[in-house]
Structure formats: structure tokens, C-alpha cells
Write a structure and sequence with these properties.
single chain, alpha/beta, 6 strands
Length: 188
């Protein structure tokens, strides 16, 4: 006869009963509940992973220097030499094209064109920043440079608007009045 629903049972010895501690001297684990008498392990469950038996822990022994700038802006550098090897003459070098070819990592929020190496191809490059020498070498090879607007990092907006985006969009499409000019709704 095979296994049926009414004969299902775990194997013998599989389900152990919970050890009930502190239930009197006859149980064998009464009074001190199997923890012995006094001491550090009798009084609480376990020490933290950083506890070293009372000696000065490693995170306090090691000297600490410097600080981490929380306002740091990480700019990923991209050299002309890399573009000359990876792209063909007349190609458009966009951030998406750079990422798909594995030339910039996903975490690169700002990309700057640098002048290391020579460029022998006519390319249209779209990046956030470029050095003066890189711009000169690119234009000498017949290429063009298009600067992509950088995302603002202000905490006030928090929505990542491009830097320099005017407030006309926020006010419903109307540009704010210039200094000295006031809008009047009354008929003159």
C-alpha cells in the first residue's frame, strides 16, 4: 500500500520536542535552565561580533584619519584615445553608446572628455564636460562637441532637473516679470 493522506507522518526522530527549561528540579533543567552558575554566558545570550573579551577592540585600536566629503561629485574621465579605438569615422558618441560598448560604468553620472591620445576620426561627441585641449583636438579632427546639461544636485528640488532650468515651467509657463515691472490687472 502506498502513501496516502491519512498515513502521512514525518520520519521517526524528525520532530523533536522543545526543551522546556526552568520548570523545577525534577526536569533536569530547572533553576539555572542549563546555563550553569553565574558568569557572562549565564546572564545574557551572546556577545556582539566586535566583542574581544574586554581588550580594546580593533575598531578602537586602529587610528583614524581624514573624512569623507558627502558633497563629492564624481566625474568619469574619458580619453580621446579610447574613442579613436572604439568608434568609426562619422559615428555619434552618446552616453548610451558609451555605456553599451562598456566604456563608461552605469554609476557614471558625469562624463568628461579628456585629451589623452590622438583622434583621427570625425566624431560627434555628447558628454557633460570637456577639457580645452580635448575640445581643440576633437575640432582639429573635424568633429563636433555637444555638451549635455548636467543634473542639478540641489536638495530643494530633489527631482534632478537639469542645471539652469528656469522657473517658467514651475509657474505654469509664464516667465517671471523683470525687476521694476509689475503686472496690473486693472484697466488704465
Amino acid at each position: 500500500m502506498g502513501t496516502t493522506l491519512h498515513t502521512l507522518a514525518p520520519p521517526a526522530g524528525h520532530r523533536r520536542r522543545r526543551k522546556r527549561v526552568g520548570r523545577g528540579p525534577g526536569s533536569g533543567t530547572g533553576k539555572t535552565s542549563g546555563r550553569g552558575m553565574k558568569g557572562q554566558l549565564a546572564r545574557h545570550d551572546s556577545m556582539s561580533a566586535a566583542f574581544e573579551g574586554g581588550q580594546l577592540p580593533i575598531h578602537r585600536r586602529v587610528p583614524k584619519r581624514g573624512f569623507v566629503n558627502i558633497h563629492r561629485v564624481e566625474v568619469f574621465g574619458l580619453n580621446l584615445r579610447v574613442l579613436d579605438q572604439a568608434f568609426e569615422d562619422g559615428d555619434a558618441v552618446t552616453l548610451e553608446a558609451l555605456h553599451t560598448r562598456g566604456l563608461i560604468p552605469k554609476r557614471a553620472t558625469l562624463v568628461k572628455l579628456l585629451a589623452d591620445g590622438e583622434l583621427s576620426k570625425k566624431l560627434t561627441v555628447s558628454v557633460h564636460r570637456a577639457s580645452e585641449r580635448a575640445r581643440a583636438k576633437l575640432e582639429a579632427a573635424g568633429g563636433t562637441l555637444e555638451l549635455v546639461p548636467e543634473r542639478s544636485r540641489s536638495k530643494a528640488t530633489g527631482d534632478g532637473e537639469p542645471a539652469g532650468a528656469d522657473s517658467a515651467e514651475a509657474t505654469g509657463g509664464e516667465a517671471p516679470a523683470a525687476d521694476g515691472e509689475t503686472e496690473s490687472t486693472s484697466a488704465e
